Design the sequence.
């Protein structure tokens, strides 16, 4: 059986693929998604959406982990060289990325928000011909950056939905307010809070997010609720001591490297919590300046994750205590900075029936599952909780696709057919909401 949604998705599919490939070729990491944001904004404007770009979309003081200004500047210059016009850049300069698109239909209906993350990872992309972006000529042209989590796909799905909605207003009986959140800086759990604090979730009745892959492996499979979102906190710690000549007067130094090494071993030895899964990782450590100098500075990047917020805050507190103790042991100054955060969340179950029913009409949708454990962190949870706080409905889909290698791998790739499947799923659910939710 075919119907108009299936036909529309079919017609949009080549564009979904070409948008995804374009985005894939120009990956940008958290708070530097200048070209990506401008690309999204220009399409949405063309299709009649009211667009909020950069500073208009995110709350400046609620941005976690904004890169150093030198790096931001470099990325801004690159984006301008790649075609971003200077007026648009003014709205984004200084690490203000992301786009919100809104359509106030004027007809009574729910406020529906959908979130798509847009940032890339800091990985050098695979070059071998097994890797389709390399083979087909859309491999990343930005050194050390790659879309290795599928956010290029998420962005393309969001654009597809915007296009489908705007050209089928009557068919879909679109009502209420539709708001599309193209969120920057999901990696490292840095960007969601800035959209929450800007107020975009305050009045939302129905909220949907989702991810391709992540354990959903079959094309045509949609999972209604990802579960087991781990609460997480990201920290940077800087230990500051005193340099000294390592041969002549080592006693005058205060050794930040030794303190950092002591801290790392003890951080990884924090006792497990009985309430659930706990994780801690020190992912980066750099210290010292030369062979014959007592190391004056050390810098650590670490993260904690917990199955519940209690477990995560237990880990965070213990981590802080250990860092302070190590600093004290070596008589150093310590600076700790929170760089990102996500909480745990549980999707709203009460609309599972409605969503399942909507998806059941999907031509491309072969299997609808109730839930699947994510076992990772996602700052979308801040949005989910915000919406549920005022009794709104919020859930997070998984869209099945085989993935070559895992997420965050240099050879990560997915089956582009999932773009059409996700678009069809979201369009059907949005259509159903307009009929069902007052
Ligand atoms: Zn991701």
Sequence:
């Amino acid at each position: 059986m075919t119907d108009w949604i299936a036909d529309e998705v079919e017609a949009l599919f080549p564009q979904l693929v070409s948008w995804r490939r374009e985005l894939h070729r120009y990956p940008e990491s958290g708070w530097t998604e200048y070209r990506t944001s401008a690309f999204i904004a220009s399409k949405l404007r063309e299709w009649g959406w009211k667009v909020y770009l950069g500073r208009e979309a995110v709350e400046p003081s609620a941005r976690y982990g904004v890169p150093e200004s030198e790096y931001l500047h470099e990325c801004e210059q690159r984006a301008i060289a790649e075609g971003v016009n200077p007026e648009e850049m003014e709205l984004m300069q200084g690490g203000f990325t992301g786009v919100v698109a809104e359509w106030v239909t004027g007809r009574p209906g729910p406020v529906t928000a959908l979130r798509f993350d847009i940032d890339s990872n800091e990985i050098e992309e695979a070059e071998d011909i097994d890797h389709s972006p390399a083979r087909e000529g859309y491999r990343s042209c930005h050194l050390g950056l790659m879309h290795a989590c599928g956010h290029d796909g998420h962005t393309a799905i969001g654009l597809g939905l915007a296009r489908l909605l705007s050209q089928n207003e009557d068919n879909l009986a679109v009502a209420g307010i539709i708001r599309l959140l193209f969120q920057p800086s999901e990696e490292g759990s840095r960007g969601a809070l800035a959209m929450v604090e800007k107020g975009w979730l305050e009045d939302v009745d129905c909220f949907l997010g989702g991810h391709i892959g992540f354990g959903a492996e079959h094309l045509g499979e949609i999972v209604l609720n990802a579960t087991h979102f781990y609460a997480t906190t990201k920290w940077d710690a800087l230990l500051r001591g005193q340099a000294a000549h390592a041969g002549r007067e080592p006693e005058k130094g205060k050794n930040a490297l030794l303190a950092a090494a002591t801290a790392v071993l003890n951080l990884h030895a924090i006792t497990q919590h009985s309430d659930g899964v706990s994780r801690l990782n020190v992912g980066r450590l750099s210290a010292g300046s030369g062979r014959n100098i007592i190391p004056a500075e050390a810098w650590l990047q670490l993260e904690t994750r917990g199955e519940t917020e209690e477990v995560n805050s237990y880990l965070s507190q213990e981590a802080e205590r250990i860092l302070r103790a190590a600093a004290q042991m070596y008589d150093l100054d310590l600076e700790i900075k929170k760089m990102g955060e996500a909480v745990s969340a549980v999707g709203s179950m009460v609309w599972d029936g409605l969503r399942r029913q909507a998806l059941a009409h999907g031509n491309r949708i072969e299997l609808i599952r109730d839930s699947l454990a994510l076992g990772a962190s996602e700052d979308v949870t801040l949005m989910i909780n915000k919406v549920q706080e005022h009794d709104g409905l919020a859930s997070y889909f998984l869209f099945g696709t085989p993935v070559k290698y895992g997420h965050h791998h240099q050879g990560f790739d997915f089956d582009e057919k999932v773009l059409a499947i996700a678009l069809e799923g979201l369009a059907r659910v949005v259509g159903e909401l307009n009929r069902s939710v007052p």
